[in-house]
Design the sequence.
């Protein structure tokens, strides 16, 4: 699916000229972008700018998955969609925009939920995954799927006027996973959604753009991570002084049920099979009622 | 406006330990809403607590700071949004001088003059 | 032109619901956004995301000015434009996108250069100005026009993998202007354009989104500035450690020929008339040859 | 790879002044391209210069640092991209501990142990 591309066509040279000039990109890395396949889970406030800038940069293939349709209350922040695509599945609205922005990118639009059943196979087909979702249970599921499939995960979130960003499982097996940093889920009553708490468009937009940047950095070898190299960017959009801070995160957690060594784990290690066969109940784990759609 | 976290009078603190320094405590990701909407406050060392004098002999730990914050400084009555079962609740990261507290010894870390302790509530929206 | 709006229509309530929930926005500030008129000079890599997020947020009126047409080499970073709008004036391509994103926003598209002749009158009609251009002579001209017209300027720039952002003349007459910080222009040989040096899409995109955020903060009273409150954000997009830094900038420069007090100025103070009548030769000032289009 | 800015041998520096501290010098906005692509370097105080010993009695200033950088550390031969007429060229901002050097006394500011001096080339692209 992501066979290495060995050359650019003349229209591609023209289109990518301004980034081919960069020493950190150049032709070899542009070809690396062209041969890459990125899975974007969620085409909302984060996925909108992330997918726009990744398509613009010439990622060879983007798989988009989201079960929702475009609503009017999305459009203040989900700037990939349009008033003319209201009520369309978000992935179809997105595909229209992205194909027109850059017809050289293959767009695979899946109008469906990201579930325990399709998670691992979707992640396995990609080189890199972006978590652009909005619920803790999906965040654990995506991380677990990335660990079992050995893929790097670029995770971001936003609420009100704050945002957070972290590159996980980077490189696979060495950097911490989502469970290493957050081994226990937040109490359900402490989780506020954008629907409840609100969110400012440029704040979630900034986080989505930063996801696109981090994905490019991973692909061109400029985000190395490692056991002690994981950082989290936190953004306070309304601050009048320092808005962005870069925090040094812990390494892998000994005994992590997702990415830990088997001998250190108390209880059952999460596997490809346990995810797919429902052995991990993500909704119950996060304190919710089943039937919520994971 | 918000009630300041630190009482203006510090006369109840023994003078021998009253001037060992100060720390900065910061809240992010919505936690500031639990603390009178303050993103950043400065606290003296030792901490201005009167509920426990047994800890004055040794420098206060981050665990002591959490106890102080939840018992004295937190204005929101929903204590469980900050502490559950005596520990910082799941979903809150604690950073000591911008590094995950796991790298520094977690609750046991002894606070020094000039330290910054940042509490970040994890966001899930997108 | 920017008469205060006293209410939102039901479709507007629905559309802006997620930002109306925010304590920092709410109905009064949403009405402030609706009554605002923002001038965006340049619809390229900065102007693309800036205009998208400002239109999304419900700014009442956007005036767009840019003399260029959409080229293929723009599309990796100028994600407002499309392959289907190649060769159209950028402002027309932008107007198509922005009107479809949010039909409640009035879009005034001017396919022309920003010049000494139209600068002051364009700036005077707006409440706030975004400098999304790419040349030093335009940056001085926009700043001077903002000073004589008493408008706040949100200025950003990007090159290669770096970006910079500063809010100038904020509030008008109190915060430093572009000339206070950069009284002398850079030597021509030290100025690198994106065409020569290249630029990474998400880097310039991040700067443009931050411009939209800062513009909103100015309008809702969350970016106060003042004599000593001006900060510059600098962004190092390829850094593996701290990417964003917030720098404390100087206040107004005594004797600034644009914003200084008359008694402190050596030489001629820049005025509405001197700009318009060509008394200030911006191209020559910046070491260029006239006829470059200012 | 890049040549380090600081020579590994510091034996020519008088011992009485060899250990007064160190500073961090950073480059941004493309200036790092003039300095062997290094974004950040650490320099000892006093500065490792042998061209002028007259300044050893007083702490070096930011002006001395600029002289050191252009004479000794800069690898690009186009000195005019960093210094014009003996001063940092127009379009370069100098920040001392993240504040515009105008707030700190510009060239005259005396460097202290632990200071960070950041040189930022202004960008114009968009
Ligand atoms: Zn793990
Ligand atoms: Zn000025």
Sequence:
């Amino acid at each position: 699916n992501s066979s290495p591309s060995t050359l650019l066509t003349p229209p591609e040279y023209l289109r990518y000229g301004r980034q081919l000039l960069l020493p950190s990109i150049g032709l070899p890395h542009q070809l690396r972008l062209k041969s890459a396949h990125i899975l974007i889970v969620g085409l909302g406030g984060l996925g909108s700018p992330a997918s726009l800038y990744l398509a613009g940069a010439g990622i060879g293939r983007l798989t988009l998955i989201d079960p929702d349709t475009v609503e009017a209350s999305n459009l203040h922040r989900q700037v990939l969609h349009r008033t003319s695509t209201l009520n369309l599945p978000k992935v179809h609205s997105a595909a229209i925009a992205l194909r027109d922005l850059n017809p050289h990118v293959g767009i695979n639009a899946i109008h469906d939920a990201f579930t325990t059943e399709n998670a691992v196979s979707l992640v396995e087909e990609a080189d890199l995954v972006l978590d652009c979702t909005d619920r803790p249970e999906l965040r654990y599921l995506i991380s677990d799927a990335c660990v079992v499939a050995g893929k790097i995960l670029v995770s971001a979130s936003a609420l009100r006027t704050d945002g957070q960003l972290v590159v996980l499982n980077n490189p696979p097996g060495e950097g911490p996973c989502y469970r290493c940093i957050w081994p226990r889920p937040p109490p359900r009553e402490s989780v506020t959604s954008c629907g409840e708490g609100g969110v400012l468009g440029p704040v979630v937009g900034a986080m989505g753009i930063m996801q696109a940047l981090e994905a490019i950095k991973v692909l061109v070898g400029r985000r190395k991570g490692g056991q002690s190299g994981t950082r989290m960017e936190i953004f306070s959009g309304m601050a009048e002084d320092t808005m962005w801070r870069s925090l040094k995160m812990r390494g892998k957690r000994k005994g992590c049920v997702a990415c830990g060594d088997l001998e250190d784990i108390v209880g059952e290690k999460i596997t490809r099979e346990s995810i797919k066969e429902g052995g991990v109940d993500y909704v119950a784990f996060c304190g919710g009622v089943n039937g919520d759609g994971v | 406006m918000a009630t300041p976290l630190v009482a203006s009078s510090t006369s109840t603190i023994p003078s021998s330990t009253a001037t060992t320094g100060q720390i900065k405590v910061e809240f992010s990701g919505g936690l500031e809403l639990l603390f009178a909407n303050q993103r950043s406050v400065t606290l003296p060392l030792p901490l201005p607590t009167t509920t426990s004098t047994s800890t004055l002999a040794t420098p206060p730990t981050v665990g002591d700071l959490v106890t102080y914050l939840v018992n004295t400084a937190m204005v929101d009555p929903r204590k469980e949004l900050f502490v559950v079962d005596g520990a910082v609740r799941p979903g809150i990261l604690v950073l000591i001088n911008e590094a995950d507290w796991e790298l520094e010894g977690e609750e046991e870390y002894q606070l020094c003059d000039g330290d910054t302790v940042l509490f970040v509530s994890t966001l899930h929206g997108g």
Remarks:
- Chain A touches chain C through 67 residues (CB under 8 Å).
- DSSP finds twelve helices and eight strands in chain A.
- Residues C 176-177, 179-180, 252-253, 256, 258-259 surround zinc ion (ligand 2) (CB under 6 Å).
- The first strand of chain A starts at residue 37 and ends at 41.
